[in-house]
Backbone:
């Protein structure tokens, strides 16, 4: 099943390619240009994962969130992004800490995450992140045919194959989560 056929089962209207620059930050728009994905608008009040899932018909297992972390490695503070499914729980102090080689690890403050990424909090996406930022993609994300991710702003989302995330130069795939049950 191709991405367009997959998308037909959900309750949203894809945006035409010529409208993408109006709905995406420049860093994201340049990264997604020419890629096989769908950009669509969402209501701000339905942008958070659970509200989005309920309103647009996607399961939490098809929604991937990008979370910015702050960590210390070799005495230097650094930042990384982690992409994880809405249906799973990050193993922050185990698998994530180990994958980063971190001595200490915490979630980045909202104002730091938005300043580093140039994106809106609640809409941060791995696509368009600074080239210097490591990106960890949970192996469970890669097991999905397609996932919905943020678009850099709260009023848009991207539907794409997880392979697009794994192709990012700074991306690493690792098992980082537990079932949330």
Residues:
């Amino acid at each position: 099943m191709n991405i367009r056929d997959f998308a037909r089962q959900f309750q949203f209207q894809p945006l035409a390619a010529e409208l993408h620059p109006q709905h995406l930050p420049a860093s994201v728009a340049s990264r997604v240009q020419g890629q096989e994905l769908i950009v669509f608008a969402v209501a701000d009040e339905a942008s958070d994962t659970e509200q989005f899932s309920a309103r647009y018909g996607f399961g939490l297992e098809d929604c991937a969130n990008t979370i910015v972390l702050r960590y210390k490695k070799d005495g230097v503070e650094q930042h990384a992004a982690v992409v994880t499914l809405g249906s799973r729980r990050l193993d922050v102090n185990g698998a994530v800490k180990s994958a980063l080689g971190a001595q200490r690890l915490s979630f980045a403050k909202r104002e730091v995450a938005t300043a580093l990424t140039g994106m809106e909090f609640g809409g941060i996406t791995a696509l368009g992140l600074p080239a210097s930022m490591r990106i960890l993609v949970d192996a469970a994300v890669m097991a999905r045919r397609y996932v919905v991710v943020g678009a850099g702003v709260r009023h848009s989302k991207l539907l794409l194959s997880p392979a697009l995330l794994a192709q990012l130069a700074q991306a690493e795939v690792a098992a980082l989560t537990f079932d949330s049950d």
Q: What stands out?
A: The chain is about 30% helix and 30% strand. The two ends are 29 Å apart (CA to CA). The helical segments are 3-7, 20-23, 26-32, 49-56, 92-100, 110-117, 139-142, 162-166.
